[in-house]
Specification:
mainly alpha
Length: 97
């Protein structure tokens, strides 16, 4: 009986309509907001990853500029450079199919 009185109340119906509209039909509904928060979390995680990569690359760049051992190591690994009295053996991993 009390519930039927609420259904006849125009203020309750207007509030109910407004809440339902905001939850399901608005362009910023609840489901869209959840998707946007999920996307924001992914973007923040990738931002942290790339900030870490930038820091590592800056440190490596400084090492390449000033550290002779790092320069030699990089040249040997990436450009297959060697000293005159050395031989290079390239070992490639075997992939089993």
């Amino acid at each position: 009986m009390k519930f039927l009185g609420l259904l006849r109340n125009k203020f309750f119906l207007a509030t109910l309509f407004f809440v339902v509209w905001l939850l399901f039909f608005d362009r910023n509904d609840v489901f869209t907001q959840m998707e946007r928060r999920k996307e924001l979390r992914k973007i923040k995680a990738s931002k942290e990853y790339f900030a870490q990569q930038i820091t590592e690359n800056r440190n490596f760049s400084k090492d390449l500029q000033f550290n002779a051992y790092t320069i030699e190591k990089y040249a040997r690994e990436h450009y297959m450079m060697k000293r005159d009295n050395e031989d290079i053996f390239i070992v490639e991993p075997v992939v089993n199919k």
